[in-house]
Amino acid sequence: MKVTEHIAQAKDTLISFEILPPLKGKSIDSIYEHLDPLMEFKPSYINVTYHRSEHMFKKRADGSFDKVEIRKRPGTVGICAAIMNHYKVDAVPHLICGGFSKEETENALIDLNFLGIDNVLVLRGDAPKNETFFEPHPNGHRYALELLQQVAQMNNGIYLEEDLQGGIKTRFCIGVAGYPEKHFEAPNLQTDMAYLKRKVDAGADYIVTQMFFNNQKFFDFVAKCREAGITVPIIPGLKPLTTKKQLTVLPRTFYVDMPEELTVEGMKCKTDKEVEALGQEWLIQQSKELKASGVPVLHYYTLGKPHVICNVIKAIR
Ligand code: FAD
What we know:
Layout: H1 3-9, E1 14-19, H2 29-35, E2 45-48, E3 54-59, E4 65-70, H3 76-87, E5 90-96, H4 102-114, E6 119-123, H5 144-155, E7 173-178, H6 189-201, E8 206-211, H7 215-227, E9 234-238, H8 246-254, H9 260-268, H10 272-292, E10 297-301, H11 306-316
Parallel strand pairs: 1-2, 1-10, 2-5, 5-6, 6-7, 7-8, 8-9, 9-10
Antiparallel strand pairs: 3-4
Helix pairs in contact: 4-5, 10-11
The structure holds flavin-adenine dinucleotide.
Flavin-adenine dinucleotide binds near residues 125, 126, 186 and 192.
């Protein structure tokens, strides 16, 4: 079922989760162990992130180096199929531009369609860790908009092979990313919003946001989206603060501000356990306010902390 169908049928705020594929070599059981405690909250769907390969340098015997490509977290499509099979819950694979040709994307979409997966979250992806700027595959997409257009074409039965007639129309519900505090490369929020509007005009069915720790930033973002004529559902992405280090790492990695009150209280904590308790309480308050404001879904980035998310959802039910 499509994310938008879940939203349309909902009588209350829905819950969804986002997980990462396990590191290469680990079993699917690590995903089930992570998700099992969360399933009592009946998530409407579960997102699975996509991780591009990275370039690494391996030393040869003669001291020179080989540049090799390593994908540390493969398996997004397989995990989505496993989740749907194991829990009978919809899965939302993330699709990225980075590292993919249009043909590879088309093949992935055909696989997803055959597996009965109705949803995709289309993203650009970032530059690999040791590179500064995002560079698309020579025969790939530079922006999420272009990837979205390819999915929308397949939803109209149009494939890359121009002479392919009568191709089946896929029925992907397409999500895109939005940034309440602006995407880090955008010169300002207005420009970023204009590009977001283009994604929606091209067929995006809903927006899911980058994490934020100050609800006012989300409310302002939604108001600006509505002013800009963006009418699709906007789903808040939420992550708990769980370690002291994250007070500086999260702003640096995700370009989000930490509210002063959270920072001051976080700095007073003596252990990460104390920070986790603080972050949990903060997320409970954020979730309660967002729910009261009528958001369609609370989307939690569970990232190795399912117990915190369990406690948050128990507190807001
Ligand atoms: P775009 O919409 O393409 O925007 C990228 C930048 O380009 C923005 O600054 C935008 O303003 C600008 N822009 C857009 N269109 C144009 C244009 N036509 N001309 C000029 N500028 C333009 N990354 C992963 O690798 N895997 C994941 O699974 C993943 N999941 C994510 C889930 C969510 C909910 C979010 C918020 C992010 C996720 N990311 C993931 C990170 C994401 O890939 C990065 O934030 C990336 O830098 C931008 O992706 P985007 O889809 O927003 O890009």
